[in-house]
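Worked Example 4.2. Read the sequence first, then its structure tokens.
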Amino acid sequence: MRRWLAAPLQLPDGTLQPRDRGTPQGSSVSPVLANLFLHYAFDLFLAREFPDVQFERYADDAVVHCVSERQARQVRDVLTRRLADLGLRLHPDKTRIVYCKDDKRRGVYPLTSFTFLGFTFTQRAVLGRSRTMFNGFLPAVSASAVKEMGRRVRRWRIHRHNAQDLAELAAWVNPIVAGWMTYYGRFYRSKLYPLLRRINTYLMRWARQKYKRLRSFKAAHRWWRGLLDREPTLFRHWAWMRDVELARG
């Protein structure tokens, strides 16, 4: 490990640049070493100094749950000193105290939402067991995550794959989209519907460019509805959205 940390960085022109700290950006060992280091520098320290405070950490991102603003400030200040002693510092822009506002916490605070691991946690409407609505503090896929998935779908250029048939497109698209649905669809999966409808739009464009008989909108729409009836599970997201689409008529 010492040799790895001390190894020089090779630049694009082949020259070697000596290093005296850290690991190269993108290095495969960087996240491993970061997790090992933060396990002792952050996890065990926080568990020892604040045993009643729960937290989650993924790599160098963490959420710490406090019962009051006073406790949150205390934990932040102690962690700041702890990491400074180890040559690290909390990110000045990303380290924030957030008020988890809902029907039980109705105070006023500048920050009432945060994003963690692709989910935005904020006040959201919830249908209770008694079939009445109330506000809870819950996660849903973040806008930035949806935007990034949308960029990826656009880069697929589905409508240009005229040499492939629908089954081949489904075999390519399904594993990726199924992963998104499994991860981001655990909470408020309706937030994914605009993205999934966008995939359908590209599939429709693919069909209209591949088959001349579908060039008119009416013919394409008729073919599309027939396809959903004949093969409702061809694409993984079709079955997921079917009940919603039927409810809309």
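Now turn to a second chain, presented in exactly the same format:
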Amino acid sequence: MADAPRASQGLIDTSVLIDLDQIDAGQLPRELAISALTMAELAAGPHATGDIAERARRQDRLQRPEATFDPLPFDGASARTYGRIYAAMVATGRKARGPQAVDLLIAASALAANLPLYTRNVDDFRGIEHLLTVVGV
């Protein structure tokens, strides 16, 4: 995984978006993008807890990016790049199921848009370095 110089643009995954207030801006690209899949993960969050206070925090976590970002769609180009990413992951002997599959779909969005992917979970993307620049923050 790359320790790339500060890029002008990059796609941040859900882990980075959730921790955005805690990350030094110098570790991130100047212009942030997110995937529609990140918005989907955030939209599910409030419904995944029975705790009222946590539900409110998750709702806030959803509303802020909704007001800030115009997410990249998961389109035909993203679908095609997902096939390449999936094949690379499977070639390493790892499975791409459940939350891991969503991470790879987000990576496909970054690859299709020709953007580096910024994440807090670099290990989730081991095996696709030759396809996509993954930057740990």
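Notes for the reader: The first helix runs from residue 14 to 18. The longest strand covers residues 9-12.
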